[in-house]
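C-alpha cells incoming
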C-alpha cells in the first residue's frame, strides 16, 4: 500500500522476507526482481523504500518466525482478547456481559445474540434471504414484522416512555447517593458521582471516548508506577494537544489517588434517607418533591378496592390504557369513535367523564349528596376534587369508594361493547356500580344494617343514613 508501483513491477509478489534477501559480492542486499528497468520516478520510490528498510540483517535459519499479539501478554493467540480489542478500537458497545447470565440457558443467550444482530428469522429477514412471504407481524397482525422483540429505534411511542422513566430514575438515585470509597470495586469511575459531584463521562467526553477502560471501577484505573500510585485510563493512542490539556485538568480535579482499603466494600447511602438501605418508596417520594409532581398516590390504594383496579386507575392517570386515540398513536389503524356515545373521539377524559353516558352515571350517584359537580378537564383533576368529603357516616365511606366503582364499570362496559358486541342501558350500568359498592363495602361493614335490595331500590335513603 505504501509503494504500489514497486509492488506492481516486482515478480515476487508472494515472497517472504527470506525470498527477497540475496548475496551480491559477499554483501546481503534486497532483491525484488523487477520486470524491467525502473523509470526515474520509480527509481526514486525504490531509493525511499531502501532507506525505510535499511540494510538487511542475516536471518536465523534454526528458528521459526514468532508472531505475538500486541493486545495480549500471552504468547498464544486469544480469540476472546482479539474480539475485546476490536470492540475497544471500533468503539463498539455490544453488551457482551448481558448475554451470559447465571441461570439463563445457553440457547437463550445465543437467541438474544441473534436478536442483537438482527439475525433471527423474522418476516423481513426471511424476505431479505430470498423467501417469498407476506410480511405481517404475527402479534398485532397489522404492521410489518421487523425486530420482533425490541423496537429498532427507541424513539417510537411503544417502549420509549418505559425506558425514559427508568433512565430518569437512575440519575435521580445517582445524584442523591453519597459514596464512601473503600476498595473501589463497586464504584464506576466514569458513571458514578464520586468526584466533586460530577459524572466524569459527561465532563470529559473526549477522554472517555479514547479510554479503553470505559466500564472500569476506581480500583481498575489505579496503578503503581515506580512505587507511586497513579491514574491510568489506558488511552488508545497518544493524546493530541487539546486532549492532553483536558487530561491535565482531569488530573487536577481527581488529585493524587489515595490507597484503597481492600478489606472493606464501598458504601452507598441515600441522601434523602436516614437509613443505610435503599428504599424505593422514599426515592419515589423524593422524586415527587423534586419534580413538583402532584400524582395522587394515596388515591390509588383504598381499603376494599382490588389491586387490579388500582393499577387500572394508575394507567388512566398516565393516559396509558388502550383507548382508541392511544391505539392510533401506537400505530394501529382504527376508527376513533367512542364506544359509549358513538358521537365523539374516544380519549381517556372523554370516556370516563365527558361522554354523555358517563355524565349521566356520575350525575345519578352525585344527586343524593346534593353536589353540583363541574366537569374537570382530566380524570386526574376529577380524582383530586374527589378528596373533598361529602355525606355523613355511611355516605362518606360510600363517597370514597364511588369513583373507583364508576370508572371500573365504565371500562368494563366499554370492553363488552368493543369485543362482545353487547350493549347495556345506563340503568343496568348503575345497578352494576351499586353491586360493586355493596361487595367492597361489605368487607368494611359499611352496609351492616342494609341489604343489597335496599341499596338497589332506595339509594338516596341508604346514602343519607
Amino acid at each position: 500500500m505504501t509503494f504500489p508501483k514497486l509492488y506492481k513491477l516486482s515478480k515476487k509478489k508472494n515472497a517472504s522476507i527470506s525470498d527477497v534477501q540475496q548475496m551480491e559480492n559477499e554483501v546481503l542486499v534486497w532483491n525484488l526482481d523487477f520486470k524491467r528497468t525502473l523509470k526515474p520516478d520509480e527509481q526514486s520510490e525504490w531509493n525511499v523504500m531502501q532507506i525505510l528498510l535499511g540494510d538487511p540483517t542475516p536471518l536465523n535459519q534454526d528458528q521459526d518466525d514468532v508472531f505475538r499479539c500486541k493486545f495480549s501478554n500471552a504468547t498464544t493467540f486469544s480469540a476472546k482478547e482479539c474480539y475485546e480489542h476490536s470492540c475497544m478500537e471500533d468503539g463498539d458497545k455490544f453488551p457482551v456481559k448481558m448475554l451470559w447470565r447465571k441461570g439463563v440457558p445457553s440457547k437463550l443467550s445465543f437467541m438474544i445474540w441473534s436478536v442483537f444482530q438482527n439475525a433471527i428469522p423474522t418476516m423481513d429477514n426471511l424476505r431479505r434471504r430470498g423467501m417469498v412471504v407476506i410480511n405481517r407481524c404475527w402479534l398485532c397482525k397489522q404492521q410489518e414484522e421487523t425486530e420482533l422483540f425490541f423496537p429498532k429505534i427507541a424513539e417510537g411511542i411503544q417502549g420509549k416512555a418505559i425506558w425514559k422513566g427508568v433512565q430518569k430514575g437512575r440519575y435521580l438515585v445517582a445524584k442523591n447517593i453519597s459514596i464512601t470509597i473503600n476498595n473501589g470495586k463497586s464504584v464506576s469511575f466514569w458513571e458514578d458521582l464520586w468526584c466533586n459531584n460530577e459524572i466524569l463521562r459527561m465532563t470529559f467526553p473526549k477522554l472517555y471516548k479514547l479510554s479503553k477502560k470505559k466500564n472500569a471501577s476506581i480500583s481498575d484505573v489505579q496503578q503503581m508506577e515506580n512505587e507511586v500510585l497513579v491514574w491510568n485510563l489506558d488511552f488508545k493512542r497518544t493524546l493530541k494537544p487539546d486532549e492532553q490539556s483536558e487530561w491535565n485538568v482531569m488530573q487536577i480535579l481527581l488529585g493524587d489517588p489515595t490507597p484503597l482499603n481492600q478489606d472493606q466494600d464501598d458504601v452507598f447511602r441515600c441522601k434523602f434517607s436516614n437509613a443505610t438501605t435503599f428504599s424505593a418508596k422514599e426515592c419515589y417520594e423524593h422524586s415527587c418533591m423534586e419534580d413538583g409532581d402532584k400524582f395522587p398516590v394515596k388515591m390509588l390504594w383504598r381499603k376494599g378496592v382490588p389491586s387490579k383496579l388500582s393499577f387500572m386507575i394508575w394507567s388512566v392517570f398516565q393516559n396509558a390504557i388502550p383507548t382508541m386515540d392511544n391505539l392510533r398513536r401506537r400505530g394501529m389503524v382504527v376508527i376513533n369513535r367512542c364506544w359509549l356515545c358513538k358521537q365523539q373521539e374516544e380519549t381517556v377524559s372523554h370516556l370516563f367523564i365527558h361522554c354523555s353516558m358517563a355524565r349521566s352515571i356520575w350525575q345519578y350517584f352525585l344527586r343524593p349528596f346534593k353536589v353540583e359537580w363541574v366537569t374537570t378537564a382530566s380524570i386526574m383533576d376529577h380524582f383530586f376534587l374527589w378528596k373533598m368529603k361529602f355525606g355523613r357516616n355511611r355516605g362518606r365511606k360510600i363517597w370514597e369508594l364511588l369513583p373507583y366503582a364508576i370508572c371500573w364499570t365504565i371500562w368494563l362496559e366499554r370492553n363488552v361493547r368493543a369485543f362482545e358486541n353487547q350493549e347495556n342501558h345506563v340503568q343496568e350500568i348503575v345497578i352494576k356500580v351499586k353491586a360493586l359498592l355493596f361487595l367492597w363495602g361489605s368487607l368494611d361493614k359499611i352496609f351492616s344494617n342494609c341489604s343489597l335490595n335496599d341499596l338497589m331500590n332506595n339509594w338516596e335513603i341508604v346514602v343519607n343514613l
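note: The two ends are 97 Å apart (CA to CA).
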